[in-house]
Fold this sequence. Notes:
The chain has about 120 residues and is α/β, with parallel strands linked by helices. The chain has helices at about 15-25, 35-45, 65-70, 90, 110-120, and strands at about 5-10, 30-35, 50-55, 80-85, 100-105.
Amino acid sequence: xxxxxxxxxxxxxxxxxxxFTQALRQAGYETHTSYDGKDGLKCIRELRPHIVILDLHLPxxxxxxxxxIVRQDPEIKDTKIILATAxxxxxxxxxxxxxxxxxxxxxxxxxxxxxTRLLSDKSLR
Length: 125
């Protein structure tokens, strides 16, 4: 039996986190959720997820800071990070460092299709 790929959702809005969780689970991921930036960074280091859905506006540690820390850490720098934000201007300078930017609100079906495509990407395994 093969293990499911791991997706980490770092999102302080519990309703949005639940939408992400359900879409990723239906696409075949094992999901974990963190509701603040400090815990989210800890989870990235401990879980070594295949993908991270990262909100930019988080308590304790902002998403852009997490992205910078991850990209500078040789142990986790290749983690696939998808930024999720309602503010496209805030995400624009981070496009180069992230793997994808999602503008909220994200439709459940769109996220599910994206997650399925990412799952078929062999580099995620």
